[in-house]
Amino acid sequence: MSESSGSVGLLSYETLVHAVAGAMGSVTAMTVFFPLDTARIRLQVDESRKSQSTPVILAEIAKEEGISSLYRGWFPVISSLCCSNFVYFYTFNTLKRVMVSDRSKPGKDLLMGFISGAVNVLLTTPMWVVNTRLKLQGAKFRNEDLHQTHYKGIFDAFSQIISSEGVGTLWNGTLPSLVLVFNPAVQFMFYEAMKRRAGRGGRRISSFEIFFIGAIAKAVATSATYPLQTVQAILRFGQFKSDGKGGLVGSLKNVLSLLMDRIKRHGLLGLYKGLEAKLLQTVLTAALMFVVYEKITAATFKLMGLQKKVKL
User: Fold this and answer.
1) What's the predicted TM-score (pTM) here?
2) What is the DSSP letter of 171?
3) Is 208 left (phi over 0), alpha (psi -120 to 50) or beta?
4) Residue 67 gets which letter from DSSP?
5) How many CB atoms lie within 10 A of CB 261?
6) What torsion do the CA atoms of 183, 36, 26, 46 make, to the nearest 10 degrees?
């Protein structure tokens, strides 16, 4: 591949459009369904909270802490999500331009998804650690072992975590996060494959079909990786008492310890506590995100006079 073609793959208007559209789609969708994410993270982190239907959990939180608490931590979450999806979509579409010359295949989609996810995790995990803590600040926990944090905002949270717990704490949960790149990788593999099938022969895909395809892709990926998402949330919250070992071995032990402890206390189903809320939130969010993403890219390419090149 020539130097010029490589630079076009890395720095192009088309790739930038995909990245901005992906970021805007995720921000729009997450804002609409944010209360469902609030219910999900409470069930994951607070073991003493009974697992009930999502509407009941939301009603409890609103009654005890006020309706505004359902959107607590919205800004840091949206900021992290915007950056995260910009990085993911930019990396994925850059790889697509560089690696796919003729027909894209599920194997290549999966590989590109893994690489994009790994890059995203390493760059944005500190933001997710901070927003997890801000989202849970002021929450009324059922578990007495969990204590309140007192951060004045994003920058203060970064400052306090670094000064009291060390810089490495900002990458808490990186190991399960890296394993969890399987989630968006599988999601994008299914999404791209189903979209190719639906668009055969140049057929135009409707918004409803995009919504449906995005929902199925995310449901499959989320169900397969949910136990690790629970571990990820607990580690990011920072109140798990580990044995003090650092490095890869220590991280692996923490993950296994949390998984086994959850099974011991609540059985295998305990690993899926909050799955209903997560599926509702993540499936609806992903589906709406893909609709907004496709609409923005199509409108932008049309406005710029560019033909969207879809490699089927």
Assistant:
1) 0.76
2) G
3) alpha
4) G
5) 14
6) -60
